[in-house]
Amino acid sequence: MKLKAKASHGLFPSSVELEAWSWPLSEIGEALVELAYRSGLSTERVAGIPPMPQPVDEETMTQWLHLASSPCEVEMEPVETTYGEVENMLQSVAPALLYVPEIEEGGEARVVALLRSGRWRLRVIGPDRLIYRVAPVALRDAWCAAVDREYGPALADLLQAVDLSERRQVQARRAILGVQLGGMPMRGCWMMRRAPHAALLQQSQETRLPGLGLVFIASHSAALLFTLIGWRLMGHAAIHERFVPGWLWGWALLVLTAMVFQALAALTQGWLAIGVGSLLKRRLLFGSLQLQPEEIRHQGIGQFLGRILEIETVSQVAAAGGFGVLLSGLQLLAALGLLSLGAGGGILASAFGIWSVVVGLLLWRDLKLHEIWAQMYRDMTNDLVERMVGHRTRLAQEASEHWHDDEDALLSQYLDQTARVDRLQVLIQAVLPHGWLVVGLIGLIPVMLGPPPSLVGLAISLGGIMLANQALTQLVAGAPSLVMAVVAWKQLQPLHEAAKRPMEATTVEGGQLAAGLRAEPGEAIIRARGLSFRYREQGRYVLQDCHVDIRSGDRLLLEGGSGGGKSTLAALLSGLRQSSGGILLFRGYDRMTLGGATWRRQVVSVPQFHENHVFTGTLAFNVLMGRRWPPDIEDMIEAEAVCRQLGLGDLLERMPAGMQQMVGESGWRLSHGERSRIFIARALLQGAELMILDESFAALDPATLEQALNYVFERSPTLLVIAHP
Ligand SMILES: Nc1ncnc2c1ncn2[C@@H]1O[C@H](COP(=O)(O)OP(=O)(O)OP(=O)(O)O)[C@@H](O)[C@H]1O
């Protein structure tokens, strides 16, 4: 099959073949750099991208892309679609890299660098750095060629028998395969995005928020300007009693223009709200995943839950007109200008200045009260989460009359604070805008008592008072949401700070090691010299001057008294914690060289029961999450086999949905022994070089223990078992 694409350069576009607009696999690094640069995500063409290790499979490629994308300040996210959806996906996934398997038997695999494109023509960068325009269907055919080749021949005879032109035959084959294979998963596409730890401003540029913001401010200002000119026109006509039709038409035109700009402002406000909300959500959720377990533990998980819920407040406020509040500032300035131009300008402008200070002070007080209120709310959430987690223990062991002791005290403090916030709100909402009308009219009294003012000056002053009233009404209507947003943003600061931390990158050595072969029998896997660890800087050492040697193929048992530091050592060896001193090497590399992610892939630890978790999801997800998700059919077959070998066959028979059964907190309640074997299965399926089991067999009866242990011996290349004597 020959694939064609129109070249976009030159005066007379000509058809060129796949080789011209796709990159050889060996040049994937160059394709990545060029795509990052041309799509505006990198500021320069980064040099020195390491070569991709061979042989290539999807896993190696994903790992390598993870490694190679970090110097370009981008991330490559694997995208999965179905055979029937390929064309749609190609139209929305850019910028992206696509792995195109060999089109013909014996051909070579290629890579396509897809730029942001229109719907009907996709733009791709060729190895000659020129941009080609490709029909979505041509790229679809290239990407799906391997699948089409496998399933297409069966259709060939059928299509030959029908009298159709060659073009129609291709279309018919595409349509039939689309129906037959529509749900088949398709992989080999990686979407390029700005790295999530990049500055918020850079990320907002990517979503075109600054431009939208400017359009919003400009259209709002224009609407205000045209309204003011309209007022001036009507005022002038009224004072001079000259209501000629031309003036009325002019006024109508001004009002219409103001309406158009107002509609544009409302439209861009909606887009801004959605854009800001999604940007913040993405950023802060990334921040929450960047937190170290110790940071969460230090503050309590409920505190963080409370903070994460605040994300919704910030984005809702954006939608609820927080921007309108900011813009009422513009109206206040315009009102100040009018008041100083009108009759008795000095007095009215000063009165308005003093009133604005009062407004500012009351809003400041509102902010402070809200901050205390939010802290109380977070404490209550934390308390509630603690109570829910420990509910069963309290049920069994605490006297029921004490269950709600602290809860009642917290609740009554919270209600008192809510009442304080509400009282201030009433004052702000009722007094500020209307109070100003009274103050403004009192400010006019000296003007009226003095020499008669000019009618124009009086009209301008009245217009200024009304405009200020309108601006204050808008300000106090939106102020509560703005105050909430400021308070919520302050609470989200730890997540925002965590989001600035760069992700742990896979290093060149890490990538090579991950793609390379297993260690030779007897080769040193772990080497630790003088290893020490303490939980706090001034705390006591839990481990001190510790020497460990683990070789490939070893089966080791680590015994020791309670609190002796066995689990801590397991956490250090598996890269979950970092040592306070000494040297720790995995196959000759330290953690910095290898990268934390690669280290944790290669040394898997099954933590003690209370430190491990069954996620709410299918059993298949729970055992395969350490390998990859979504899985392919081989993964599923292997996962079921591992579960059966660990003695979970009975459980699988009893579960109505087998491997697809929902487990976890709200699903099938697994017994202690079943859970511990699921943890073992999860670790075995990760395929790590070294496996550490921390008291994983404690809950098993002797027969099951023997079966599980024998299987673990058989499957793990190197094993360290922690157990009590
Ligand atoms: N976050 C922490 N801060 C301070 N000390 C801690 C912390 N976590 C654990 N420790 C202490 O470190 C010591 C070693 O704990 P570790 O869990 O490694 O022991 P272990 O040998 O696995 O014990 P066991 O056999 O009872 O599971 C214990 O004294 C424990 O109290």
Automatic annotation (TrEMBL):
Q: State the source organism's domain of life.
A: Bacteria
Q: Which GO terms describe its molecular function?
A: ATP binding; ATP hydrolysis activity; ATPase-coupled lipid transmembrane transporter activity
For membrane topology, the record states: Multi-pass membrane protein
Residue span(s) of domain ABC transporter: 526-724
The chain's coiled-coil residues are: none
Query: One Pfam family name from the record?
Result: ABC_tran
Subcellular location as annotated: Cell membrane
What is this protein's name?
Answer: ABC transporter domain-containing protein
Query: Is Cytoplasm tagged as a keyword?
Result: no
What species is this protein from? Entotheonella factor
Principal cellular location given in the protein's record: membrane
* GO terms for cellular component: plasma membrane
Q: Which UniProt keywords apply?
A: ATP-binding, Membrane, Nucleotide-binding, Transmembrane, Transmembrane helix
Q: Please give the start and end residues of each transmembrane region.
A: 211-231, 251-274, 317-339, 345-364, 426-449
